[in-house]
Amino acid sequence: MNLASQRAGWSRLPLRAAAFVVLTCVAILGVSGWREWAARDQVLKGAETEMANVARSLTQHAEDSLDLLDSGVVGVVSRLEMDGADPATIGKLRNLLEARKKAIDRVHSLAIIDDKGNWLTSPGTIASTLSDDAFFRHHQLSSRREAYVGHPVKSLVDGEWVVTLSRRFNKADGSFGGVVLAAIGSRYLSHFYEQFEIGRNSSVTLMYGDGSIIARNPNNEKFVGLNVGDTPLFRDASLQRPNGAYHFTSPLDGAERVSFFKRSGRYPLVLLATVDKDELLAPWRAAAISRMLYVLALVMLIAIIGAVLVRQLQRGQRMAAALIEKEAHFRLLAEGSSDMVTRIGLDERLRYVSPSSNRVVGWRPNQLIGTEALAGIHPEDRPHVQAIVDAMKRGDTEEARVTYRNVHRQKSEVWLESTMRVTRKENGNVDGVVAISRDITEQKNLETRLETLAIEDSLTGLANRRRFDERLKEEWARAYRDRSSLGLLMIDVDHFKAYNDEYGHPAGDVCLRVVAKTIATEVQRVGDLAARYGGEEFAMLLPNTDAAGCARVGERIRNAIRDAGLVHASNPTGPCVTVSVGGAACRPAVERTAGTSSLVEAADRALYAAKDSGRDRLMMSGEITNLLRRASGQ
Questions:
Q1: Which member of 536, 555, 591, 623 is catalytic?
Q2: What is the mean pLDDT of residues 189-197?
Q3: Which pLDDT belongs to residue 608?
Q4: Where would I find the PAS domain in this sequence (predicted)?
């Protein structure tokens, strides 16, 4: 019985072995098939990640381009509202706009349009008006002052599709004065997208919020202006989020695509970066077929243990290839970018630096790798940057953007803007930070210049009316808090209209500059402020100054201007330019019912009293009260 059982066992052994071999082969083939499908998913996810990086970068480029246009538009609007839209100002602005357009290749056109929709400046002669255009109606009907990004339209100048950014400017009375318009050409954006080599049949499309195509690469001329607003990207509720992956069949060329979309958080723009799915999966498909045939041959020729070992080796090789491919993609994007890309380790030393570091900070990558990442940052800015890096190392912050000053090898220092993002290991632990840095020194200088223009009178160099009003409120509050006095002088050039009529407006401008320089000489304390109040009228704010001190300063100014000896033959008060001065002083803490306007009114009344008394003299507000009393016989 035992022998029979043993023989039966021997006879079943081939079956068992065959079953074991079959089961093992099926298991190996099943495992291999599952891994190939996972590899396919990994390829798709890698493409989604790559498209996400491209979409974010190009969305940032589009936002930066519109910001650059808007900074120029804001400057023009400020100039128009300050100087008006007279032909002389428009002539100067026309030259400025032409120079800006030539200097910045992304600017297609810059123009000023009056309140009727007529061109005040344009690259050529354009007969049509823009009163019916959407952006013009928007600014005409709305008093809001923010920038308006319009739908893509064909330019009236050269027929090119453009996206416009515009701002309203007002007349002196606050009514609608017209529009300052800037545009970026679709052709420029399409050419810029050609720099990103993400596949032979890939595409990058920038669209307006309603689905109108602004620019596309490739075949920009064929698709620009089309509207794809009826596609799921704009209608499917699940896709109405700021960004995400999107697999679809293109309505433009019928290709099945893997893509990533990014909606701008600041402008009505949508960026869609795509790659052809068949093209993307072709290498994987060819490799997968080869690998499966190889596994089948191994199953037939070698033992199960050998097959397992080979499979483990294949798994290791695939992992190594995936890591090499990821590193190659990262280096391709980093080294092809004009921005400086760096990788910072947990020890805050640089592990990787892209070649553009030579342009951005003046040092080559091999000179920076291994050094402290924050070593070149300005001492005043370093604590803020250090705090951000510490938070990212702890995992408290995933992404951050910071602006700071940094040492440059050839220049003293430059302004950099860095976008930093945490990188993690497979287990989720933070292993460093990737930073993308760009030089924004020119932008910072422009911002500083615009800030100066906003508070400074362009003719005299003194503070303008806006700055005067701001400082008056500040000094009034300070005087109220400190229980101190506040003095104000109002200064007016005598018979200035006659001076202009006799010597001409250029000489009048010279006269105002001389008067302004003389007044500025009397600004002897940090808190004093000399300002051009309007026309030929000036003002001088004197904190912590009583009426007597105010009068002394006013007399010095009046005498200094008279002693300057500017010839004024038609001046009844003398052969040279003279001024009338009105002064007032008060203690805000004592005169609780008074306000800033009452101080200005008191000094202004004193100024008119000085004029009525024969000009070329100083009159304080207290003297006016005495004169009124004497006139009434009290």
A1: 536
A2: 82
A3: 94
A4: 326-396
